[in-house]
Amino acid sequence: MFKLFDHQVKTLEFAIDSERYIDGSEMGTGKTLSTLAYIDHLLKENPSLKVLVIAPKSIILTGWVADVHKFVPHITIQPCIGSKKQKMDGFNRDSTIYVTNYETANSTIDLSTGDFDMLVCDEAIKLKNHRAKWTKEITMLSKSMRYIVLLSGLLTPNNLQEIYSPVNIIIPNLLGRSFWSFQSHFFTPNPYSYQQKEWMPKRGAGEAIIDLVRPYVIRYTKEECLDLPEQIFAVREVEMTARQKKYYLQMRKDMVLTLKDGNVPATTKATVLNKLSQISSGFIYDPEHDTHHFESSKLNELDDIINGELQNEKVLIFYTFKGEVEVFKEKYPEASFITGGQNAEDQARQIEEFQSGDVRLIFASVSAAKYGITLTACSNVVYYSLNYSLDDMEQSKARVHRIGQAKVINYIYLLSKGTVDKRIYNAVLKKQTLNEIINGMIEEGD
After folding, report:
1. Residue of 173, 175, 162, 112 lying closest to 132 (CA atoms)
2. Which among 168, 131, 170, 127 has a CA at the least distance from the CA of 148?
3. Is the overall model pTM greater than 0.70, yes or no?
4. Tens digit of pLDDT for each residue in 377-402?
5. How far apart are CA 331 and CA 391, in angstroms?
6. Using CA atoms, how far apart are residues 98 and 87, in angstroms rounded to an integer?
7. Burial of 1 by CB count in 10 Å (0-12 exposed, 13-18 middle, 19+ buried)?
8. Max CA-CA distance within the chain?
């Protein structure tokens, strides 16, 4: 079997003792390999072991299937993806590991008929919403499992209440017989929130929850367990073009942009924020979802970076909007692309061409590429645009800062000077929510 790092050996020992646990180690610390080592250990005791892995679709082929073939080729794995018929055909084949996406739990496919002995939920942050259908289905399914492993470097990206559902899958009723009993016991309505719909932790609630959960969680940071290279962060602020400035100021002042083809309105502060971000990147969507492009200083700066100082380097460029990738595909047709809605086979091919081939540039949607993907062939990352999700930011950085990376990593954030770019960048660093960003804009008169 492959050689484990010391922290992975300790994780394996913890797994053997616990049987049901959460591996909350940071992204890039090799949680998948620790889990495969645990599965391999259980197979020695039970050769007929059947394992169900539920993971984001984007990492089924490039993550789980690839890692099994590379590290434990004696274990069989069957991807169950595609149409309902393709998934059912996959589940009907003989295998030890069956891996499917979370959406399968939303479908009419009855996973309980698989007689699985073990459940693994990768990127278990997807179980944070106790109301989600797949959370309810997976919770029911877990009751028949002896072995359960949840993998997530960030279980509560928004608030502490999101810890209930994942923990309830591992140890039912540990935090309460229902979410509502958990909420009422540890939280109280925020008197300053709208109609008191937000809840805040009671005094000492955080510590009490952690004390209950701690025995079932193992967590390592990169600094604790890996000799990973240094990360260097740089911000590049660029002046918008005259047209960008004109459009930006009109949208900010009037909440509408007048184009020759018609008006682009913004009815709320949140919509204004989104439109200002679009203008900063050199385009805007109209009410019919058509894209209007115009010259962008960011695009010129990006081209100077990848064909100037990084001309001989592989570069990963993260973007936020579909309107941006349209320009990238036209300007850099030789590049690889990871986009929303991309099928798993195409994504795997694009990643392989970048990781092992001659492709020098890869453009990736920050939301589509944030889970499980490894892009360690690259040590230069450019953020062309940002959203306000801390999870997206942290997950995306870990695509390169993980096991297998040998070089110092350079992150470059492209921000249009005097725009919401800087506000969003600072807000993410401060872990602010969208509402907090908007309130800040209102208070400062933006």
Report:
1. 162
2. 170
3. no
4. 999 999 999 887 777 888 888 899 88
5. 29
6. 10
7. exposed
8. 71
